[in-house]
Design brief:
- The structure is a single chain.
- By secondary structure, the chain is of the alpha+beta class.
- The chain folds into 2 domains: about 25 residues; about 160 residues, NADH Oxidase, CATH 3.40.109.10.
- It contains 9 helices and 4 strands, in the order H-H-H-E-H-H-E-H-H-E-H-E-H.
- It has a 4-stranded antiparallel sheet.
- The longest helix has 25 residues.
Length: about 220
């Protein structure tokens, strides 16, 4: 069987394995500073400078995010970037009062959403095996898969943004129903969470809140 421009599955598999070997030969781990930037010393931000986030940066951010793994490569997440004042006015209808100013001050607010019909694209996303029957007529399973994996993709999005030098501030204080009615009444997408995006004004930060120790929440069995 031939695939992908006439190359055989064995050739494609070999190319993929060699790509991973090549990557590992170039870099085996991130530096401690890089890990600090994306997670260890990263913070959720609530105030923003007016430095803009360009369309090219948003496209690059998506291109990094979409490479993260999902179940059966389902890629159910959808992203809507709110930047114009008109779009912010629409989004503000859904927000709790304390979150409106945060959203309006951010250069961009991303709606992390998911498409209930994501599995219809599995012929493209998972071409080597027909997995559509796993989802067809199984709404609970399809929704559970979509919500879990779009949340996972939202986490990739936040880490990728930090890796690019951007700051993020995720928000769940909003009405999903209002967002879905305002932005997704035609395509049927479902909102998961919101994420402010830009360059933070760090003077609004307070102390970092506590985290668990390993022995508090982990077991090795």
């Amino acid at each position: 069987m031939m695939a992908d421009g006439g190359r055989t599955p064995d050739t494609l598999r070999g190319d993929a394995q060699e790509a991973v070997r090549s990557l590992r030969s170039r870099i085996s781990r991130l530096s401690d500073d890089s890990i600090d930037l994306i997670l260890r010393d990263a913070r959720s931000h609530y105030a923003w400078t007016d430095k803009p986030v360009s369309d090219d940066m948003l496209k690059t951010l998506f291109e990094i995010t979409i490479q993260g793994p999902t179940s059966m490569n389902t890629c159910p997440a959808r992203f809507v970037f709110i930047r114009s004042e008109a779009a912010k006015d629409r989004l503000a209808k859904s927000l709790k009062a304390k979150n409106i100013d945060k959203m309006r001050a951010a250069p961009v607010t991303a709606i992390i959403a998911w498409d209930p019909l994501y599995w219809h694209r599995l012929d493209f996303l998972f071409p080597h095996d027909d997995r559509k029957p796993l989802f067809d007529g199984k709404e609970d399973y399809a929704q559970d898969t979509a919500y879990r994996n779009s949340t996972l993709q939202g986490a990739y999005f936040m880490i990728a943004a930090r890796a690019m030098g951007l700051d993020v501030g995720a928000m769940s204080g909003f009405s999903n129903a209002i967002v879905d009615e305002e932005f997704f009444s035609e395509n049927g997408w479902k909102s998961n969470f919101l994420c402010n995006l830009g360059y933070a004004d760090e003077t609004a930060l307070f102390q970092k809140l506590p985290r668990f120790e390993f022995d508090d929440v982990c077991e090795i069995m």
